[in-house]
Amino acid sequence: EAGVTQFPSHSVIEKGQTVTLRCDPISGHDNLYWYRRVMGKEIKFLLHFVKESKQDESGMPNNRFLAERTGGTYSTLKVQPAELEDSGVYFCASSQGASPSYTFGSGTRLTVV
Amino acid sequence: EDQVTQSPEALRLQEGESSSLNCSYTVSGLRGLFWYRQDPGKGPEFLFTLYSAGEEKEKERLKATLTKKESFLHITAPKPEDSATYLCAVQGGSSNTGKLIFGQGTTLQVKP
After folding, report:
1. What CA–CA distances, in Å, run from B58 to A100, B42, B55, B72, B79?
2. CATH of residue A34
3. Which of A1-10, B38-47, B59-68 shows the lowest mean pLDDT across its residues?
């Protein structure tokens, strides 16, 4: 079984630019989550999709972040415009049911300069 | 507010030297406490879920226990390959999703 795939693995962009991160969950997993870890802090929840619907987006920091999940398959997280404080590692995870014993991807390391 | 605190931040052990990692939590109605292992450059890897006080789970050299205020991850006779960051997370009763609150983790180094 293929795992959760995220790309790019690394991205370096300038402040004010736009970046789109992609996550391909495990096939058949209806639940998809985005988390991020900024330097020196704990991993924090961003949002949760069930199929193509946003179940919980309480962790999205502001309206510069836009997440989509087309057709309930892969998901994208767009940051526009990027700010310095957006730097960190963005993780995607998926699960079959709602239990958080989910599978994480390896993350996308985003650096905003 | 739901909160998770892990201690120590870092732990260095000699191979075979057993120890425990602590995870203290405050949550409104615990639905589950989760332990993950994270290797450098990788995402967290699920280890255990504990649901109620008194519950214990084991996997190889790892044993997780749960009380009403904290969880311990006991590592018995560790090997160098156990070196990693161990993350604790809780799912609170106020959450109607699979949202987790993570601690900052304990980075374990086991020397041969």
Report:
1. 19, 23, 10, 12, 16
2. 2.60.40.10
3. A1-10
